[in-house]
Amino acid sequence: MSEHDYPRAEDARPTLAGDRVRIRPGRPDDVEPLRAILAEPTVTCWWGEPDPADEIAADLRGDSCSVLLVIEIDGQVAGGIQFVEENTPMYRHAGIDIFVTGRHHDRGVGTEAVGLLARFLCEQRGHHRLTIDPAAANQRAIRCYEKVGFRRVGVLRRYERGPDGQFHDGLLMDLLREELRPARWTSAASG
Fold it and tell me: Which tens digit of pLDDT belongs to each residue from 115-132?
């Protein structure tokens, strides 16, 4: 596959639906709910203080290098999931990141959302490899990603500065297309 054979960037803003989770492109009215979720203590402890509203809006519009999509549950904004694609042919892969409101932690929401996006990136965007890099101490996130099929690659020492101002270790995880676990939910996609 050459660089010119890759799916177009404008096709990278899907609507994906599982049993409980719907992932969709963002709208201007999603900025404040997403910012409020990013300000929750259960999220800021891993993500730090929320970005300014204009930066979140730019991410939702696709004005940055990553694609930010909205996670909905029962029609309500429940979080965000984003991906970035490396399209250099020798290193082509995609990376994922996610945040979910504390009200939906430990309910399988993150696992379903990551699984939906991972399947889209492999099947629709043609990626053979995906990465994700949670904080090494974020056991909830690590368990979630392992349920989808991600494997631990190694510790990234002093990888990111935490809200406490200190550098903390991260965990590099990756998933090869053939390691993607079968969905435990039904899914539908539309572009």
Answer: 999 999 999 999 999 999
User: Distance between CA atoms of 29 and 57, rounded to whole angstroms?
Assistant: 9
Q: What's the CA gap between 80 and 104, in Å, rounded?
A: 12
Please give the residue range of the domain that contains residue 147: 12-190
Residue 2 falls within a domain, yes or no? Answer: no
- Edge-first strand order for the sheet with 21-25 is 151-161, 167-176, 129-132, 93-100, 76-86, 66-73, 21-25, 15-17, 188-190
Percent of the chain at pLDDT above 90? 79
Please state, in angstroms and as integers, the Cα–Cα distance from residue 168 to each residue in 11, 134, 152, 157, 174, following that order. Answer: 35, 11, 17, 7, 20
Among candidates 33, 46, 59, 180, which has minimal Cα distance to 111? 180
Give the C-alpha separation, 166 to 168, whole Å: 6
Rounded CA gap, 128 and 124, in Å? 11
Residue 184 sits in a domain whose CATH number is 3.40.630.30
Residue at 3 is within a domain: no
In a domain, 5, yes or no: no
Number of domains comprising the chain = 1
Report how far residue 161's alpha carbon sits from residue 13's, in angstroms, rounded to the nearest whole number: 30
By three-state DSSP, how is residue 71 classified? Answer: strand
Q: If pLDDT is split at 50, 70 and 90, which confidence band does 5 have? A: low
